[in-house]
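does this look right to u?? zinc ion version
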Amino acid sequence: MAGLLFGTGGVPHSASLNTTVAGIERIAELGLGCMEMEFVMGVKMGEDEACLVAEAAARKGVKLSAHAPYFINFNAREPEKIRASQDRLLKTARIAALCGAQSVVFHTAFYLGDSPEEAYNKIKKYLEEVMLQLRQENNRVWIRPEVMGKQSQFGTIEEILDLCVELEGLAPCVDFAHWHARTGIFNSYQEFVSILLQIEERLGRVALDDIHIHFSGIKYGAKGEIKHLNLEESDFQYIELIRALKDYKVKGLLICESPNLEDDAQLLQKAYNAIVP
Ligand SMILES: [Zn+2]
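got this back:
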């Protein structure tokens, strides 16, 4: 990775059309560097379109990632729901690879009343089957379980890092807004640095040289995340986060998921560039 690239979760609002190719073109016009394709309601893109997307991304120099469908739960009770979750993740990884994307992000699971340990062991088993299949297909896209914002969701930083240590081909999607919402803390320079150091300690410097970050303002309560907000409407100390990322020379993609998408992505990029190292 050349540096830290900023982009949007989905097609920017100001794109001429609500298509992935138009989104890529708009990202380039805005001077941003990346975009996450939101397959959150299902993977509807075909192989022909994926090739056009790959061509547009290469031509415009825009890096891509993909977000798998929301309907995934690797801790589901019913075997058919586990299989459907595996299939949705595989399908996303296959189309993402055709698009030239380097990472696939997904929401791993809900605890559904299980202890974190029980959930972890089940999730690891079923996820390992997916990783094996992808390796057989020679698909080298990073599969990135996301740090989640609600207490009911699997995905503390610790849990995500544990999975990444244990399973080859897995890397974290570090959602700083979710972690702040879940804990009520982690909103200062020192706390952000502590997360970066924790990642480095568990996964090595390589994880900070190719990171995948989700970020937005966030509204939260006792149970964690309520909804995403624009940065200026939230309590997030985003300048402190940006400063920590710059000081520790973190490289990779930062995907902005504020409701205003490209406005906050540009705000963050400007703030980042304004910090003199
Ligand atoms: Zn997500």
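The first helix runs from residue 20 to 29. idk if thats expected tbh
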